[in-house]
User: Fold these one by one.
Assistant:
Number 1:
Amino acid sequence: MAAPAPPLIEVTDVGRTFADGTRALAGASLMVPAGAITALVGPSGCGKTTLLRMMGGLDAPTSGAVRFAGGARPRAAFAFQEPRLLPWRSVVSNVALPLELAGVPRGERRARAERILDRVQLAGAGRKLPGQLSGGMRMRASIARALVTEPELLLLDEPFGALDEITRQALDDLLLALWGEFGMTVVVVTHSIVEAAYLGRQVVVMAPAPGRVVGCIKPGFASRTPALRATPEFAASTASLLQMLAQSMVREKGAA
Amino acid sequence: MIARLLRAALPPAIVVIALVAAWDIAVRLMQPSEYLVPAPLAVARAFLEQRAELVPAALRTAGSAAAGFAIAAAAGVLAGSVLAASRFLMRGLYPLATLLQMVPLVAIAPILVIWCGYGPRTSVASAAIVSVFPVLAATLDGMRSTDPGLAELFGVCRASRLQRWWKLELPWALPSIVTGLRIAAGLSVIGAIVGEFVGAFAGDASPIGIIILSAMRENRTDLVFASVALAAAAGFALFGLVSLLGWALLRRWHASAG
Ligand SMILES: Nc1ncnc2c1ncn2[C@@H]1O[C@H](COP(=O)(O)OP(=O)(O)O)[C@@H](O)[C@H]1O
Ligand SMILES: [Mg+2]
């Protein structure tokens, strides 16, 4: 087995209480290894989005700490559950938006956007408006927009949650291919156990009320191809994830 | 495109023709004095006889209305944007703007004459004043409804305040702004004529408001009707132009433009 990658992000005993008194997180700890995919699973309301926003610098803990390797915040990009494309802009200028906002000259940002569109198999759709695309295509455009800045850290919040199962599996494979090519660190929030086990080198299981980390498994499959989903090892890892989630629910009921 | 335009224009055209016909029949049946209600043909005759005076007058009024409208459009979008950007300013100024909107224009018109003097400047100011509020309100509403997800996206990309306004909030509010502008276009002609009633000269360069007043004094009701119709046509033209502009801006992506 390969040596464990050094952590890019270290989340230590993080708590987050909102102004209205909601305790979104209490004592959550985890490591995000550099250059690997970490999946966060858990029922809705367990603080996954809050944790992801902290990793991207959009929110700060009220207790505990989020630390980054080398002390500097890595260049991060987000993709959300909804594609969040500007309906009046063509796909290519939507994808180029982060570069445009950062002041990259027009010619260069066009070229970079076209290149990444090609990588997500949208080369022919650049001139279309978002309204003319299917849900899966819009999501690919959204991923392309996140990747166009070549981020060190890609943060995905239930990115394929609104898509049908077939499209979702295709996009999981596309994500793995892009990760293989660019090598960025990925943190992906999902509530699909199958997706988490398939994508994550490390799968972190969370529980709600208050949000916390209840466990972590490292599937360690030799290769991740569509055929993997049918193997007994894959079934074993989804089963242990399911068990972890179920246990956290039982404990919660016992405490109530 | 032309077929669609025809299909859109046909129903109102039929209604207008039917109304004019009903008017003509009513005049023939009830025979009111020419002074009270002239027949459609008498109005048309008055228009043809005086067209050398009427058409330039209508153009002058339309010019004042268009200038006032342009000022109101720029000021309304700018003020709406500023109010949308600051919760404090919105809370402080929006109720005041609403209140100002309640002050009747006819009551302010004499003050405009004092400030702007006799002549077209008063009409322009009067047109601008009546049409600014719908633009301001529509801009404010449109910008405040900006999708929070898109706002977050711009935050993640560290967009500047100006980028956020120009690339997100303004295009997002555009459908609403266009609606406000269409309302303002119609109002601006009313504003211009009110301004003319109190502050325009009679003479070679009379606008339509002055023609209406002098025709009324001369008991030329047919000429009053012809002038009113021309003023309405000016308002309609301005409204149509703004609608066309809005359609051109929105047609590619917004549902309201079909
Ligand atoms: N800005 C906020 N203000 C108040 N409560 C919030 C805010 N954001 C999230 N919460 C609450 O914090 C909890 C965790 O939210 P979130 O991180 O979105 O969970 P998840 O993504 O796992 O569904 C939820 O109960 C949610 O209602
Ligand atoms: Mg969430």
Note: Chain B has a mean pLDDT of 89.
Number 2:
Amino acid sequence: MKRRSFFSWGTAGLVALCSAISVSLGAVVRFLTPSVFYEPPQSFKIGNPADFSFGPPTFLAEEKIFVFRDREKGFAVANAVCTHLGCTVGYFQSDQRFHCPCHGSVFNAEGVVQYGPAPRPLEWFEVTLTRDGQLKVDKDQAVPASYRLMVS
Amino acid sequence: MMNPLRDAWQSIVRRDPLSTDKGKSELVFLNVWLHIHPAKVKKDNLKVKHTFYLGFITFFLFLILVTTGVALMFYYRPHPPQAYQDMKDLQFVVYLGSFLRNMHRWSAHGMVICVFLHMCRVFYTGSYKRPRQFNWVIGVVLFLLTLGLSFTGYLLPWDQLAYWAITVGTNIGSYAPLVGARVRELLLGGHTVGESALLRFYVLHVAVLPAVMTLLTMVHFWRVRKDGGLSRPVWKLKPEKAARLVTIGASDTIAPLTAVPASKDKTYGLMEVVTGKPIFETVSMEEEEDTVFSYPYAFFREGVALLATVATVMAVSMFWKAPLEELANPAKTPNPAKAPWYFLGLQELVSHSALLGGVVVPALAVLALILIPYVDLNPSRRPADRKWAIRAFTLFVVVNVVLIVVGTLFRGPGWAWVPPWVHITGAE
Ligand code: HEM
Ligand code: FES
């Protein structure tokens, strides 16, 4: 066999092997990526405006959100998931701040980090009124902390 | 007339009687389980103060874990909330269930401790040096696998402790640049710790990781043999000859064998006639006299280590219960929420900066560990010749221990500094 042809056969074989390996690896990663997530929906109804009182926010445990209702400003929904490592924060009426139990991050009433390792402010989600008069939260729609839904 | 019983016995065991030297050698090399040992070993390598048998103890703990783990699998369903109910059943209903669970849990903790101590032993005796560099690297991977097995096992009870430790732990990973969030999604099979995550952790814990661990352990042991057996104890190293490697065989310019000066020394190496330089250590005549048969000397000591390990784990499991908290509740984070203790050093770092403490520092630490044998080129294994290496490694060990102690004992609700002697009442 000529040296040249050995070289090109070897190269071709190597290229074929490498492509086979990369394709298989890709298939493995794709296989492990769920095509359907059986997880709670990102957008959901939380009930009638009248269900929510003024004053301290209502914590919805299942959805991990705080629903704020303010006499002048209306409704706002904050994510209870800490932006540091995902623990559930608590809202303390005494100092009107959110405290995270895991590594001590503290967020003010607007969700801005005041202390601790959290890198970003708490998220606020869009809340809208559906046709049947219920409040609907969409976790895919982040909004600024100043966002309010006015319900007369 | 042939005795049929003796005949049958000899069809199984073909060696000569153990009273003979030939029988002692054959016991080792005709037996698939024992032949990883050499027929003879250096007497000093058997000394407890050389290895503390930590590698063996780690391996025996792994054996206990496999045995008790398979037993637990008969009663465990990897799905919430049954997983938690099954834990309760094991604890209170299944005969010996609680004992087996305790054994599994305490051996897992023990294995993390022993693998770390074994690594320290290997470092302090300089046993990672030529020709053992690569076995050190395999060791680092075994260390990471040990942590991986502990971490995946931690979720399985599906209690509050499990749920939040894994929530925090996997979120640390998502700080890794570019791939972090994707890796977390693959690991959890979702975006939060839920049923897919439990199933994935289960499969990793009972099938994938143990299989990889078993294979790599085999490679690790094989390499110990092929790198010339255990390294010589440091106190046997003579200053002039320290870690000198004798190579035989042919180079391009010298004819094979003839160029090697006549000597009584023996070199163990490739048994085929080939060219090239083997890298094994030479055993001098005087050392040859220091060797003993593996049977019974080495086997006896390993047997004692095995018995002591099993006995200790059983004793501990009789008196101390593996913890089990309330059923996992995604809505309520316990305060403080702590990762398993061996990750609390990491959590302490993470409480200052998630990216630095959770990704950058650990990645650099693992890289540094792997590179040790390739960066430390000082050929001497004698402690007196490697003061700086020893100081640096000791610093690494001390920092690790301090961080873990701080995270475990000195952190209270909200990760605030709370010494263990201060009691907080009404903490929620
Ligand atoms: C599952 C984990 C491990 C097991 C079961 C294991 C087992 C063993 C055993 C049985 C030995 C024989 C001598 C002894 O008892 O010390 C050994 C030697 C050795 N181990 Fe490990 N080991 C593990 C992890 C590690 C780690 C984490 C390292 C280092 C990073 C390491 C590096 C070495 C080296 C270099 C040797 C040769 C030492 C010498 O020749 O003196 N091993 N190991
Ligand atoms: S998860 Fe909230 S501070 Fe770490």
Note: Chain B is about 55% helix and 0% strand.
